[in-house]
Each structure stands twice: as structure tokens, then as C-alpha cells.
Amino acid sequence: MSILEFVAVRLKELRRKNDLTQEQVAMLLGTDLRWYQRIEAGDKDIRASTIDRLAAAFGLSVVDFLGKSVPEGRVKKVPKKAPHRPKKTPAMKRAATKKAG
Length: 101
Hints:
- This protein is mainly α and 101 residues long.
- The protein has one domain: lambda repressor-like DNA-binding domains (434 Repressor (Amino-terminal Domain)), CATH 1.10.260.40.
- The protein contains six helices and no strands.
- Helix 2 packs across helix 3.
- The longest helix has 15 residues, at 3-17.
- It is elongated and about 55 Å long.
- The model has no long low-confidence stretch (mean pLDDT 82).
């Protein structure tokens, strides 16, 4: 089993054990849902710093995250639904128009 496969399996185990959706884990990481889905599927090459971020999201050390047994995570509660994107302010709209023009 490769490290990417191991991380994918571990993430699924931890996510399910903590009763979280992929979207909620992505929110905990402050990242895009698709990015997280690719990691959990084992399709995304990741750096050591990413493993550190993933472990921290579940309240674990890297050693516990990469260990053989699935430890009890200490995940903060996250909302069931993703928050709405902020509305664009007039200044943001003007900046977008300038870039497009």
C-alpha cells in the first residue's frame, strides 16, 4: 500500500468515525471540496505539510494520524451545511470588471 492509499483510507476512517461529510472536512481544512475528495480518493499527490494539516484537522499528531489504529479524533463541530459565499461589494464588482476589460 502506498502512502497516498494509506492516507486515503485513514481519512475515510477518521471522517466516518467523527460522523463528518467530505464537505465538512474540507471546511475544517479551509479548502476546496474537490481538492479534499481527490486526496480521499488517493488521486492527489500530497506533501508532508499536507499530512500535517490533515492530522491537525482531526486533532491528531502526525504520528497518531499515520499509526496503525484509528485513534479518537478531537474534531471541532462544524455546520451541517457550507456557509454561503459573501455577496460581492460594489468595489469587488468594479475590480472584476477592470480585470475583464
